[in-house]
Amino acid sequence: MTKTEGTRVDRRTTLKWMAAALSTAPLAGCGGAGENNSNAAAVLGRALEVEGEGYGQDPDLFEAMVPWRRTMTEAQLKLAESLADIFIPADQVSAAASVANAADFIDEWVSAPYPDQVSDRELILSGLEDIEKRARRRFKASFIDLEINEKTVLVDELTPMFGFLPAYLDTKSFFSRFRYLVVSAFYLSDEGMQDLGYLGNQPIVGPYPGPTEEALAHLQVVLDKLGLKMP
Amino acid sequence: MAIGPETEHDAVVVGSGAGGGMAAYILAKAGLKVLMLEAGRNYDPLSETAMFNFNRNAPLGGASTPDKSFGGYYHSSIGGFSLDGEPYTVADGSKFQWYRSRMLGGRTNHWGRNSFRMGPYDFKPKARDGLGVDWPIGYKDIAPYYDRVEALIGVYGANTGLENHPDSPPGVLHDPPAPRVPELLVQAAANDLGIPCVPARRAILTRQIDERLPCFYATACGRGCNIGAAFQSTTSLLPWAQATGNLDIITNAMVYEVEVGSKGRAVGLWYIDKNDGEHKFIKARTIVLSASTGETARILLNSKNSIHPDGIANSSGQVGRNLQDTVGSMIVAQVPALENRPRYNEDGAMGIHMYMPFALYDEQKKGRLNFPRGYHTEFFGGFFEPSVGLSGIVDLIKGYGKDLKEEARRYYGSFVAFLQRGEMIPNQKCFVEIDSEVQDKFGIPVLKFHYGHSDHELNQVKHFQKTTKSIIDKMGGRIVPFPTPARLAIDDGGKVIHEVGTCRMGDDAETSVVNQYGQAWDVENLFLADGSIFTTKSHKNPTLTIMALAWRNAEHMIEKMKAGEL
Predict the structure, then answer these.
(1) With contacts defined as CB-CB under 8 Å, which chain A residues touch B402?
(2) Could you read off the pLDDT of B519-553 as tens digits, one per residue?
(3) Average pLDDT of chain B to the nearest whole number
(4) Considering only CB atoms, which chain A residues are within 8 Å of B55?
(5) Residue B32 to residues A45, B235, B363, B530: CA-CA distances in angstroms?
(6) Which residues in A lie closer than 8 A to residue B475 (C-beta atoms)?
(7) Fewer CB near the last or first residue (10 Å), C or N of chain B?
């Protein structure tokens, strides 16, 4: 049984979860699935068309401006934010992806007029709709209203190949591209950089000090294990 | 047609990067009146360098886009592998990418600053292996200019005494920055294998020279350096030359033709003033083309007339031929020994502190290697500012959720990238010509690139792969995502941005475009001072040599002008 920190799994949740696990309804299944599908599309709404130019080859680097409009709907953004926090949840070190406005980053990205971003746009927007459809079919509720374990069931379904297929061979799925964008937004942020322990971008007066004693001591240990001499 | 500014200048220099900047500085310092024409816009690094900005402040988290195709949003380059309205074409079956910057200072604003001297073998390669051609000069001819360039621009590094990697005079080099943990680990593995791993040489100050401050070990050099620590012509050569009162600069001036008079001398230059679109002519007593390896050849080839149907300075037919770029390939290793290590500020000088020079000259001479010429290995890894995709790590991590965060912490700082930088042999497949069917937005016919490697280069890549794998094995690492065959791993032509050779120098007007001073055999008052005049490329990054040659060429011009011979 999956234990998720900070989440109390009550009886109601467990029953819903079991029902979901037993459900094998295909995407366009029978008995109201179609209705739920159209509900999903209706609830999420339709993103605006991509509009606007790129920033050009000589943009202002200090007044960085995004010349294209954001296109995602409020409902899409809420869903993206909710899903982003499943990919990057809070843990004992740092907060969840929403602290880094991951959904807004995704909106900026999928609304951009460049070819790579346009390609991601198709994956991301249809993937969001798909996961909302599945939430409604499985749990009779919108994704954002699900319990974490329910959300996890749906995300796990996105990753069926991962047991043997390395992620780098799967860079064109909704899972990998959504994850890429969430990870980008989070680790570009102060929260993410602090989580990793990035300590640079600070001017140093005098010679570069090099590794700390602690870092060198650690290196010595690994060199010893490898049978190598400290240079 | 409009007339450009009436010129009283002794020399018109086309281009403002390493070659043009140095030529203009030497000429202006000697008291000659110099006019510089730059195709790009004016650029002021003091007010335009985006230092310290975090990627998150940029659109798309600073990711590379077709508009900023190299180094992301904050990279200083105005240009890239494609330029709006300025296409180039690539022949069927060829792969070539042409990097251009359209800004004052050109590519010096963002180059890697790696500054390795070519050595004695590099100038006489044919004498060693019978392939290609030798330079008309030897190391001893250029050594004094290397000394002066290094002292002027400031280069960190160390004298190693290694074969064909010449030392600098005492006191010239700046102290190299301390090696970081990944560099120490690679060095330990290399030492164990008997592979030299020594301080790199980069045009970065680690002590103050004049108004230029030493490196403060933060913010990527590719963004440009507004304290002058990382060399670029816009914080050094150009302002120094202007301070003599002898240099005038016209930016947004797209030169497309050198006009040659009836006596075979250049009489002036045609350019398009990008401010008003007018075609303008400027008279010139002498001309220095430093427009870049591609553009210099393009100007000469486009300077056609009834006497010179194949372009001027081209009686040898060599203009556009002998195009070479560095043999490049990359291997990335993930190293468990570097996982979960103590954090510290590992930015350092934002480039390589150490490298592995080529050291197999003896084995090569004895016929034990199946490739000619050398390569060196640049390598880097560490706790750098994350870029989009967690600097590419994300696609190596499985799963999501808390596991992903834990994996990110574990993997962060545990990768080392190894770059091969090798010498290719000039071959018949590699050249540029004018594509008669395509013009740019100014109506100027564009370049068409032809490019192909031979087994020499592929065998060299294989050797690099084998050697690097042995180092990675010693470190207990693994290649990620997976090893790649040499023919797929080798970089496309132009990708390393070290293209040279299209107007090579030589001893013989029949087989070369310019003499050893960059002076066109066919046009006595036309000099070239950029990568185009390289005879061969060696595996050393070309910018230092471009500057040393530009200095030498400019001195020769000065002598000739003073003697009344130009």
Answers:
(1) 5, 89, 91
(2) 999 999 999 999 999 999 999 999 999 999 999 99
(3) 96
(4) 188
(5) 69, 21, 49, 20
(6) 226, 228
(7) N
* Cα atoms in the 13 Å half-sphere on the side-chain side of B536: 29
**Coil, strand or helix: which one is A135?**
helix
Interface test with A, best of B223, B395, B403 (most A CBs within 10 A): B395
Q: What is the pLDDT of residues B138-157, one digit of tens each?
A: 999 999 999 999 999 999 99
Does this model's pTM top 0.80? My answer is: yes
Give the whole-angstrom CA distance, residue B138 versus residue B134. Answer: 9
Orientation angle between helical segments B543-562 and B18-29, nearest 10 degrees: 30
Classify residue B2 by burial, with Cβ atoms within 10 Å: 0-12, 13-18, 19+.
exposed
d(CA B288, CA B145): 18
* Euclidean distance between CA atoms B332 and B483, whole angstroms: 9
**CA of A71 vs chain B CAs: smallest distance (Å):** 15
Between A and B, how many residue pairs show a Cβ–Cβ distance under 8 A? 244
Instruction: Summarize the confidence of residues A3-14 as an average pLDDT.
Output: 41
Judged by a CB distance cut-off of 8 A, whether residue A221 touches chain B is no
Cβ distance B301 to B446 under 8 Å? no
Say if the Cβ atoms of A208 and B41 lie within 8 Å.
no
ipTM of the complex: 0.94
- Angle at CA of residue B72, ends B501 and B38, nearest 5°: 45
Q: Where are the beta strands (DSSP E) in chain A?
A: none
Cis preceding-peptide flag for B481 (omega within 30 of 0): yes
Q: Is B392 left (phi over 0), alpha (psi -120 to 50) or beta?
A: left
B470's tokens: 């042995």
Chosen for mutation from A181, A183, A193 (greatest number of chain B CBs closer than 10 Å) is: A183
Strands B89-90 and B266-273: unpaired
Residues 473-502 of B with CB under 8 A from A: 474-476, 480-481
User: φ and ψ at B152, to 5 degrees?
Assistant: -75, -50
Question: How many angstroms separate the CA atoms of A18 and A153, rounded?
Answer: 10
Tell me which chain B residue has its CA closest to the CA of residue A164.
Answer: B398
Q: Is A50 on the interface with B (CB under 8 A)?
A: no
